[in-house]
Structure formats: structure tokens, C-alpha cells
Amino acid sequence: MTTPVQMMAQHPALHEWLRAKKSFPHLWCPGCGIGTIMGAATRALTSMQYSKDEVVVISGIGCTGRIPAYLDCNTLHTTHGRALTFATGVKFSRPKLKVLVFMGDGDGLAIGGNHFIHTCRRNIDITAVIVNNYIYGMTGGQASPTLPEGMKASTAPYGSMEPPFDACNLAIAAGATFVARSTVYHMKEMEKLIQKGMEHKGFSVIEIVAQCPTSFGRMNKLGNPIDMLEYQKTHAIKYYPGMDIEAAKAEGKDIITGVLKDENTKMEYCEKYDELIIKKALASEKEKTK
Amino acid sequence: MTKSNSEREEVLLGNDAVAFGALAAGVDFFAGYPITPSSEIAELLSREMPKRRGKFIQMEDEIASLGAVIGASLAGAKAMTATSGPGFSLMQEHIGFAAIAEVPCVIINVMRGGPSTGLPTESSQADIMQAKYGSHGDYPSIALMPDSVLESYLFTVKAFNLSEKYRTPVFVLTDEILGHMRENVILPPVEELEIINRQEPTVPAEWYHPFEQTTTGIAPMASFGHGYRFHVTGLTHDINGFPTSIPAEIDALMNKLKNKVLYNTKDLTMVEEYQMEDAEVCILAVGSVGRSARRAVKILRHQGIKAGMLRPQIIWPFPKQPVEKMLKQVEYVLVPEMNVGQVRKEVERLADGRDRIEGLNVMNSVMITAEDIVKKILNAEVPVD
Ligand SMILES: Cc1ncc(C[n+]2csc(CCOP(=O)(O)OP(=O)(O)O)c2C)c(N)n1
Ligand code: SF4
User: Fold this and answer.
1) Are B148 and B287 in contact (CB under 8 A)?
2) Which residues of chain B make contact with A88, given a CB cutoff of 8 A?
3) Do β-strands B119-123 and B105-113 pair in parallel, antiparallel, or remain unpaired?
4) Of B90, B239, B250, B312, which sits with the fewest C-beta atoms within 10 Å of its C-beta?
5) What is the distance between the alpha carbons of residues B138 and B135, in angstroms, rounded to a whole number?
6) Distance A89 CA to ligand 1 centre (A)
7) Fold of B272-379
8) How far is it, in rounded angstroms, from Cα B101 to Cα B108?
9) Domains of chain A: total
10) Architecture of B8-192 per CATH?
């Protein structure tokens, strides 16, 4: 296994992407999964050789929402749940920019749920990474819409009674054209999936199951961060077309990873606007002057 | 009136005038959500903007609309949205964001009766205070109130100019009556309009501090993608945009926001003084009520009462200096408005109990007429010499 230090050596460009002097040390707890996700996303950005000037990293509010401040590109930390609306404005007004969004599960699926499904529906070329730690990390571990039934949170002391959302199923149903899932444990896969998502033309959603040892882990007695990573390792199963997901879940493989949807037939929003709307509008103008 | 060739005379709807004003100002981006009585603005722009390669998008709600507008503005666009009461309420979260992150944007509120769904198709002026204090926290507010179709056009242009100049959200408060009124207007040639664009930084990227306190109080603003990579957040931040909780840095930020308006009161004062030279009675009216007030002045003058009208065209910041001058001059002030007395309270604050100030308040959507105002003033038994 490669260590983080070796990995850094393999990616000298990575350092350039961090605002090492300006915004570190970071605020995440020891053992938190978010830093690993930021690392994977940054490696994906460097592998694609994007220039730092053309990338815009946008987030909502939460522990996850703090990612952009650490990255040396155009960065925007918005309001709780609404990162995708700002992202839509940035991308639609200047389609050349590459837009990467980070959202927490509460951020993206509770308060931002409506923005999420509508961004899926529009298929605008934005990549959204949903960091799913099953709770509201920043505010102290309250229940989020992905909290599994029976699991505890600071506002669900007797265990949750609500059925959770499956972020990927929601994205697929709402029309996102690239949907994938990975975990913090599967660092390499996660990096590849974020890269695929960014290379995909259209709205891509990558859910990353992440450990929050401080709240979710502690309240549900899931052990230390290593134990939580071990859980991600042993409970994950890679998706393949035709897979019997229910059967896998019954066997305890409840984290279905890999690419769940990759569709390239639907036109991207900004291109469609240029192709359809602007062309028709210009034609109507010509018609008038005839 | 004689017209030059490029002046355009036409019969225009108030809401359409706002949309044409935005186009004249160079709007690049519109995001909105349908709501009566503002929808004509979005409809016209959805038709016209693509012809200029502008971007029009209908979002899933008003919070999303203003989010997209702010994103577009950060990417360099002149961006706007238009709404009415319930939508304006939803926008408050992002109004605060635009204020603290100093992102230019224009927000049109075609006021209707409230609270809540209220009177969707009828007029009011009940969102004046909301335009000042609607979002949480202390932030500067700039709001314009036109009284005619022509002013709806001109003030929309002005709103863009002020928002680009001061890096802050700017409101145009019209109302249902104004938005749905058609008037014959002569629009000035577009080339003759003053258009202000935001100042972009010229220094090397390492020297750029996007939120620094400059001599003008407003730092140049780089667009995303222009080589100045900086951080934008709704958190209290330092001059580079990074979150801070150091009291001295918080003070610097908060004072900068406050002083943007305070130090520029002269530039941000715009009033109409009608027959005020020798006035002993003043009708202080805003927005569409100004029309009735002007006619009331004529009627009262005819009856020998020296009446005048003072009409703040920029309502926020409140025009302290002209109002204080007026208070020193007149015996009696009437503030007719289509709300419970929002503007009157501001006038009373400046008068500090020294003057006789009364309100004429209508909250049932029926426009205040000149006759209503005249009757109120005659009944007030104003001393006439
Ligand atoms: C409108 C609004 N409501 C509530 C909050 C308080 N708040 C801050 S972060 C957060 C939840 C964060 O949880 P999640 O999105 O799952 O992200 P995480 O911290 O777990 O990464 C909440 C509720 C807020 N900032 N804004
Ligand atoms: S509270 Fe949880 S999610 Fe937030 S930084 Fe700590 S471990 Fe990470």
C-alpha cells in the first residue's frame, strides 16, 4: 500500500493546489474522512491537468463545506444547502469554467434537496461530491436524511425512525447523467470516480461514504476511525450491471460502489441553451427584420 | 417635447420598462421564479436576452434564483432577479450573502399586499422596511423607488450602476400599480445613459486583496477565471476572504460594510423636490404614491395652501439631509403610504418629536388619491398665514 507521503511524491503538483500558508491548519477532527476526500479530489484535478484558474470549487455549509478554503483555485463557500444554485450561476454564465461542488448529506439532501433534484434534471455540467457521513457533522451530529433507520444521532437518541434517502438513487431518478459511489477507504477508486465525473459532460454526482468518528461513530459505538474504515471496506461491494442489489444488501454488503449510471445521450444544459435557445432567438430576430 | 432621432417614444408597461432598463444597463444574466405581479419582467427578458447571447434561467425557487445570480456575478456577469413579496422573503438569506461577500446584483421587488400570500394581484408599499432589514445581521442597503414607467426604466439602470460601483445588492422597489401601468414614455438614447461597470483589479495576483479597505471603501472585484484566485464566503472574513474570528478583523469588515453607504451618502441621495421652495406643508411620498402627492400639491396650491412634495427616489439610505432641511422649513408633514407607516417612522426619527407629522395609511390595496391627501391636509387644520 502506498502511504500518503509516497502519494504526495507521486503528485508533486498536489502541493501547488493547496493554500498551505493561507488557510491551514484545517479544522477537521483527527480521523475525519473529509480530508481524504479533498486529497482524492485534488489529485483528480491535477491528473486532468486543469489550470487552477479555470477551476471553481464551491460548497455549502458544514464540515464538508470547509473544503474550498484550502484549495488554491477560485473558491466559493456559499449558504447551507444551496451550493448548486451558485454553481449553476457560475457555470451557466461562464461555461468554460470547470465547476466542482462539495456538499454534506444534510446540506445536499435535506435543506438543499430541491436544488439537488433540479440540478440533476437540468443536466448542467457540474460535478457534485456528496460527503455522506449520515449526520450533521458541523452542528454536533444531528440526524440527516441519510441516517439509516435504527441508527442514532444527537436528535435521534432512540434511533432514527425515518427511512433514509439513497443519494445515488435519487440522482439517477432525477436525471443526473453520471452517478457513482465510493468510500473514504476506497481512496483510489474515489479519485478515479471524481475524475470520471469531472470528465463527464453533464451533471455528475459522486457520493462518498465517509467516517465521522466524532459524532456518528461515537454515538453508534462504531469504534475508532480505523474501525469505521474497516466497516467501509467489508461492507462495500462493487456494482455491475444486472447486479441483485437487494441480495447483496441482505448479505450485509450495503455500500454499493462504482459507476451506477453513465449516460451520454442527454444534451448538456449550457450547450443546449446555445444550440436551441440562442439560435432560435437569433432566428426570430432575423425573421422580424426581413 | 422634441425628440432626437435615437430617443424612443412608446407606450410601455412598468414591468417592461424595468426589463428594458436592465437590457440598457447591459444585463448578462437573469435567474428568477414566476410570481405575480412581477412575471412580465422575466417573460420579456426570456425573450430578449438570448438575442444578445445573455443567459436566462428559471430556477426552482427564489432562493435558488438569487444563488444563481450571485454565482453569475462572481463569474463576471451583470446579474439580476425580479420578484414580489413572498419571493423577496425567500431571497433574504442570499441578500445577506451578497452583502457580506460584496457581490453586485440587482433585485427588483414589485410589491404586492402582504404578509404571506397576501394580495397577489394588488398593490402595496409594505416591503420598504424589509428591503432595509430583511436579512439577519447588519448590512448596507441601497433601494430605489420609482414613481413612473420612465423612472422604472431609469432606476433599473441606476440600480445596476450602484451595485457595480459599491459591490452590493441593490433593490428597486416598484409596486403592482406601477408594474402594471402603461404610460407614454420617451426613453433617452441608450448611448447617452451613464453605465458603470465594476472595477477589476490591475495589480499582480499576489498583491490582490479582494476584500481590502481601499480609499474609496470598495476593493476592485476580480471575476472567477481571470487569474485572481480568491476565496468567497458568507462567513466573517479577512481582506483575503478567509474566515476569521479575530475581533479586529471582524470590526474592519463590519465597518467597511457600514461605511460603504455612510461615506457615500451624497452619491446615494436622490430626491424630487416639487414646489418646495416656499412650502409650509410637505407631502413626503415615495413610489407610486408620489403621483397622487404631486397632484395634491397642485390642488392645495389652488386653494391657497402652500404645499410641496418631497419624494425620496432612493429610499435606502434614507435621505437624511433633504428631509431634515424640509422639517426645518414646514409646519406640517403628511406621509401618505400604502403600509402601516414605515416611511413615517423614519421621518419621525429625524424630527425627534419637534414637528407635526401625520400619516395617511392605506393597507387595503386601494391607491391613495390626490383627493385623499387633500382632504387629510384640509382636515388637519394646518396653520396658514
Ligand atoms: C439555513 C441554515 N440552517 C442551519 C444551519 C446550521 N448548520 C450548519 S452546518 C449544518 C449541517 C451540516 O451537516 P452536513 O450537511 O451533513 O455536513 P457535514 O458537517 O456533516 O459535513 C447545519 C444544520 C445553517 N448554517 N444555515
Ligand atoms: S465532526 Fe465529524 S465530519 Fe466534522 S470534522 Fe469532525 S469527524 Fe469530520
Assistant:
1) no
2) 31, 57, 59, 64, 67-68, 71
3) antiparallel
4) B250
5) 8
6) 22
7) Rossmann fold (3.40.50)
8) 20
9) 1
10) 3-Layer(aba) Sandwich (3.40)
